[in-house]
Design goal:
single chain; about 190 residues; alpha+beta; Double Stranded RNA Binding Domain; Arc Repressor Mutant, subunit A; three-stranded antiparallel beta sheet; two-stranded parallel ribbon
């Protein structure tokens, strides 16, 4: 089902966007280089047009804004419309939804929870296709031995690291890439 509406909203890391259907959130777009680029990308992905979000969507937007400002939020899968996802993808997303802010799992750990340790690459592919990043927290999934792995959002691994840092995750006791940069925004503009 195509999304029926989309809206852009500002967050601590820049303008994000969501698209929705009557059944729930279908797409989330993290910041691109500009608000217009963010809007254009989600419109292309979702097929939706700008609209006033219904109350349930406004509540999810509020939670996304709070999470990206550093408040720990856990999203419920019932706010989502993932009918377009394949069954394997949906099972991966269901496990990712259980990862609390500031915590991580590896692709292999998710594969093990699915009953197939050898499916780590398939787990990575499913997360790479995640249409609702942040809500389904694919940024909380790492490669083996704590390596970052990939991230399909704008900014790639730098964005993934920033999202993890916002949530309080620290790979060790050393400094992070963003220490001392409280005003870090995902934007190519100064």
């Amino acid at each position: 089902m195509l999304a029926t509406g989309l809206t852009l909203f500002d967050t601590a890391i820049g303008p994000c966007s969501v698209a929705w259907s009557p059944a729930g959130i279908t797409h989330v777009q993290l910041p691109e280089a500009s608000a217009s680029a963010t809007r254009a990308r989600i419109a292309k992905q979702s097929g939706a047009s700008e609209a006033e979000p219904p109350p349930a969507v406004r509540a999810v937007i509020g939670d996304v804004i709070a999470l990206l400002a550093g408040s720990h939020r856990v999203f419920a899968g019932d706010a989502l419309d993932l009918r377009a996802a394949q069954p394997f993808e949906r099972s991966v997303y269901d496990i990712a939804l259980t990862i609390p802010p500031g915590s991580t799992l590896t692709y292999g750990e998710i594969a093990s929870r699915l009953g197939d340790r050898g499916a780590a690459r398939a787990v990575g592919a499913a997360l790479g296709a995640n249409p609702v990043p942040i809500i389904v927290p694919c940024h909380r999934v790492l490669a083996a031995n704590g390596r970052m792995g990939g991230f399909s959002g704008s900014g790639g691994v730098v964005t993934k690291l920033r999202l993890l840092e916002i949530e309080g995750w620290r790979p060790d006791e050393g400094p992070t890439l963003f220490d001392g940069q409280a005003n870090f925004r995902l934007s190519l503009r100064p």
